[in-house]
Amino acid sequence: MRDIKYLKRLFIGYYKEKKENITIINSFTQREFGVIPWTKETIMMRHMSFINKESLINFLINNGPKHVYSSGALYDLPESQNMAGKGYQKCDLIIDVDVDHFYTPCKDKHDLWICKNCGKLGRGMPKKCPACKKLKLKTLPWICENCLDSAKKEIIKLIYDFLIPDFDIDLSQMKIAFSGHRGYHLKVENEKIRTLTSDERREIIDYITGENISFEVLGLQERTQSIFGFFKQTIGWPQKIIRRIEEILRKPNLEIENLLSDKRNFNLNKNLIKSLLNYKEDFLNILNNEQKNNWTIEGFGLNTWHKFLNTIVSEIGIEVDTPVTIDIHRLIRYPGSLHGKTGFKVQELYPDQLEDFNPLDEPNKKLDPIVFESEKKITQKIKIIEPNVPATKMKGETHGPYVQGEIIEVPHHIAVFLLCKGVAKTV
Ligand SMILES: [Zn+2]
Ligand SMILES: [Zn+2]
Asked: How far is the CA of 115 from the centre of ligand 1 (A)?
């Protein structure tokens, strides 16, 4: 309880001192706001609206909430207590990429779990306990530069491989935000796209993830014992797939062998890889010939092609958190507000700022999400209350790993992070 009060005070201090960080999103007065206060139970207070920046900031200073959200949707009466009374008008298209939802190799090092049934401890992101097979896992997901970088790369792919070429959306209509924890969301502010229904949004997700893709519809077929594939000039998925196949085939043979035999990935057997390598040059010529699409390769039946193409599609497709896009009444984190599980600021970014953005060690102070770094290098004593806490690397310094009971003295921003994560208490 004492730490909750302490964190709330810190958040209030931030909202008092850094008013300029709270940007005003467009159609501000038509947005529904929601907050999660610093209570033990997680309860969201929804159905609020603000008439201007001042009233929002006053609210934040008076309440210092743990999390702050606003709607992607625009309403006539955003403060109406029920959805029917709000008068829904339209909704920004929001695409969310969060490392919670996809595997990255670094999770095998830093994501911890404990089985509430049998007590087994482990690392990584299993769906169920490998020992007792029960689903009762308590997880302690962590962050590092690698997984945050994977999330960033997904957003970059989303913009340059899909939204611009296939949907003709202008860069100036895209806003990106680092969520303050494990991901990014991208918001498209385009009048035509704002009117899309939930079903139409689902179709966009199906397209950018490559889920439910039909290779037959794209042209894959077997005729008179030959396999026919796609043409490179067909814009959209066929072109993306062929470009990736070319990229693979232009690698040195040893690298191709390693990639295609990888069990987590293509998982092709030796004979198939050998046969593909033998045919490599001819196949590259066919892929670049606008008239030819005969993809017959010894040993590659339709099933093998499906497996091979599905792996390529999963590499190209974007890892998104689907419900965020299709639920038009969903609330998303407000730019400039603080994330109560890290103490980081939700940082809005233009597409051209994304490439260089490094949330855990950002040199540009205006973009730096780590707002509790102390200029005077203040340190703080805290006690670890979880059995195991992974190492935390921020601002180029690594702190931890730690075990339960340890009393540590760390820089202020690290202390705030560990307190927000709920793995430590003040002493
Ligand atoms: Zn278990
Ligand atoms: Zn990581």
From this structure: 5
Contacts of 352 (CB under 8 A, 6+ apart): 171
Cα-to-centroid distance, 118 and ligand 1 (Å) = 4
pLDDT tens per residue across span 217-241:
999 999 988 999 999 999 999 999 9
- CA–centroid distance, residue 130 to ligand 1 (Å): 7
Count of CB atoms situated within 10 Å of the CB of 369: 22
Nearest CA among 71, 368, 51, 317 for reference residue 194 = 71
**pLDDT < 50 regions, the chain:** none
Minimum-distance ligand to the CA of 359?
A: 2
Dist. CA 137 → ligand 1 center (Å): 8
Ligand with an atom nearest the CA of residue 390: 2
Ion ligand 2 residue ranges (Cβ < 5 Å): 106, 144, 146-147
* pLDDT averaged over every residue in the chain: 95
pLDDT given for residue 157 in this prediction: 96
Kindly state the tokens that stand for 12.
Answer: 């209030």
Q: What spacing in Å lies between the alpha carbon of 104 and ligand 2's midpoint?
A: 7
Q: Hey, what long-range contacts does 52-60 have (CB within 8 A, 24 or more apart)?
A: 52/28, 53/22, 53/24, 53/28, 56/22, 57/15, 57/19, 57/22, 60/12, 60/15, 60/22, 60/337
Q: What is the token pair recorded at 70? A: 């606003």
Residues in contact with 284: Cβ distance below 8 Å, sequence separation at least 6, in sequence order: 246, 249, 250
Sign of the torsion formed by the C-alpha atoms of 150, 154, 156 and 161: positive
Q: What is the predicted pLDDT for the residue at 422? A: 95
Please name which ligand lies nearest the alpha carbon of 117.
1
- Phi then psi for 121, rounded to 5 degrees? -110, 150
250-259: list long-range contacts, CB under 8 Å, 24+ apart: 250/284, 253/277
What is the CA(385)–ligand 2 centre distance, in A? 22
> Please, what's the largest Cα pairwise distance for the chain?
77
pLDDT at 316: 96
